[in-house]
Amino acid sequence: MNQALTAIDQFPSEFVERLRTIVPESWHETVFASFVYPRVTSFRVNTLSISVDRALAELEGAQVPFHRVPWCDHAFYVESNDRARLTHCELASNGGVYVQGLSSIVASLVLDPQAGEEVMDLAAAPGGKALHTAALMKNEGWLSVVEPIRKRMFVLADNLKRGGVTISHTYLMDGRRAGQKVPDRFDRIMLDAPCSGESRFHIDQPSAWKYWSPRKIKEQSRKQQGLILSAFQSLKRGGRMLYSTCSFAPEENEMIIDGFLNEVGDTAQLLPIELPFDNWQTGLCSFGEQQFSNELSLSCRILPNEHHDGFFMALIGKG
Ligand code: SAM
H-type helices in 117-267, by residue range? Predict the structure, then answer.
């Protein structure tokens, strides 16, 4: 563990100092170690193309040594040493299994889309959550997927096709325009916002963290403010949406939700989130000199360990 705490010294010092104030002290060692040690490779059986039982039999046949995830009957993982066995097996290339972080898998479970609903994924590429959403909807209903970057849209469309999704409708556009284009339309909306990706940092990949800066956080924060308002405008009354990022920065998380609640008033309520594991904290109600609404304690931040990436979520209802 000491090795982790030394290695972390290579990260930008301001990033590390901020993290110390965001994450409870009792979690510092685990969180810092997650930037240094390998994480497991988790995956989801794509129940649109194969049953869980058959997928597991095929994985056993291909000698992929998988483990079950106790809180999700279609999620599994392999140890980091076995990653190549999983990603090179036929089931991974034909869309029967999809490699996806456990925090990302839990996001679709929290949104809880239902068969027959109208759902939108407002920042969708490469499509992990959209695929999972379609599977939870049993390919019944309507799923709009939005992505403004052409190259990423092709990857998204390809993944949806390979995964057997038949209810998706793809839109190459800036998600900030959706609210005006389709107001009050969707039962559920996933907004897994573009972000500074801080929880993806790993000591072995300096290109991701070397250029971290508060300015980049600010840039993302501006975009996120526009996206959350647009998503909310597209949500039906009685609908719910999930705002998430894989960044630790309160400027991309609590501050976005706080500003949004101030702007839209009583029509939005934060809804409680229950997570089936214990490595998470409630959202912050202050950061530095900034105070946020007490409602922010209903949001949550998954703390990274060898199984989970760091992840922030706020579930929002429209009254
Ligand atoms: N939800 C995706 C998944 O599970 O595979 C990952 C989404 S990723 C965190 C954010 C995505 O938002 C990126 O594909 C990025 O290109 C896209 N994005 C960037 N700016 C956007 C905008 N203005 N409107 C909508 N999406 C945007």
Answer: 128-136, 150-162, 178-181, 206-209, 214-234, 254-264
- Which of 44, 119, 174 most suits a substitution to test ligand 1, by most atoms within 8 Å of the C-beta? 174
* Residue given tokens 């929290």 in the structure block: 110
Kindly report whether the global pTM for this prediction surpasses the value 0.85: yes
Q: How far is the CA of 256 from the centre of ligand 1 (A)?
A: 16
**Does residue 246 carry a catalytic annotation?**
yes
The closest residue, in CA terms, to atom 24 on ligand 1 is 175
Closest CA to 101 of 313, 314, 309, 311: 309
Q: Answer whether 74's CB lies under 8 Å from 53's CB.
A: no
Q: What is the pLDDT of residue 6?
A: 74
Band the pLDDT of 9: cuts 50, 70, 90. confident
DSSP 298: G
Instruction: Please tell me whether residue 184 adopts helix, strand or coil conformation.
Output: coil
